[in-house]
Amino acid sequence: MLVMDNVHAGYGMTKVLHGLSLEVRDSEVLSVCGPNGAGKSTLLRVISRQLALRRGDVMWEHASLKQVSPSQVVRRGIALCPEGRRVFPRMTTEENLQIGAYARSDRSAVRREIEQFLDRWPVIARRRDSAAGLLSGGEQQILAIGRALMSRPKLLLLDEPSLGLAPVLIDQVYVALKELVEERDLSVLLVEQNVVKAMSLCDRVAVLNGGEITFSSSVTDTTPEAVGSHYFEKVAE
Ligand SMILES: Nc1ncnc2c1ncn2[C@@H]1O[C@H](COP(=O)(O)OP(=O)(O)OP(=O)(O)O)[C@@H](O)[C@H]1O
Ligand SMILES: [Mg+2]
């Protein structure tokens, strides 16, 4: 379980998160929705230790991540799939998957999992030895998710998997995500502007606005409209 408690973080003079508290429970999918610039990517950067905490704490499996390096975070079971389907475009599809497993030493299991991934996605497999940048946008997003999963995370951090994709590709990516979540014992923290899609996958939904969580609910107790209405609430500075 991940617990963020009174987290403050920002860039130089810019304060982005102020007093954010959040919990991701075991085996749940939690979506954090919110407008552009709300601090959603910043929140994921704090967890993955790419950005320092200024105040507060992030606890993972009952231990603080404050002094933990980004690569140790991966070894402890947290993987980030960053914004903008960041595959390495000049590396091959297969090399992109191998990079996701850099922290593992069980090479034969890694090879097996790469084959499983490619068997599952024949269109991507056809380009296993070509530059990943030649894949379509949706395929690149699926590859980016596959790469993050190669570290065998217990918690997957997903930053806007639908961003910049045509509706048909968004549907493909969400079908893939649903299958992945169902077949693994995985917690997911999904940051997403597409509330309808996020709610098709998650158990709980929260709204990040003005650097703090202003709303949270189980998906069964709310609607996309109600969630969206919290985007525009004025937040006290
Ligand atoms: N590297 C950086 N240096 C300075 N300011 C930054 C940096 N990254 C983000 N910011 C600022 O921090 C705020 C929050 O940015 P963040 O990227 O976390 O928002 P977001 O909710 O992910 O937005 P989006 O939906 O557009 O991806 C914004 O005002 C942004 O301009
Ligand atoms: Mg973002």
TrEMBL record:
Domain (ABC transporter): residue spans on this chain: 2-235
SUPFAM superfamilies: P-loop containing nucleoside triphosphate hydrolases
Superkingdom assignment: Bacteria
Family annotation (InterPro entries): AAA+_ATPase, ABC_transporter-like_ATP-bd, BCAA_Transport_ATP-bd_LivF, P-loop_NTPase
Keyword terms of this UniProt record: Amino-acid transport, ATP-binding, Nucleotide-binding, Transport
PANTHER family, alphabetized: HIGH-AFFINITY BRANCHED-CHAIN AMINO ACID TRANSPORT ATP-BINDING PROTEIN LIVF (PTHR43820)
Similarity field: Belongs to the ABC transporter superfamily.
Protein name: ABC transporter ATP-binding protein
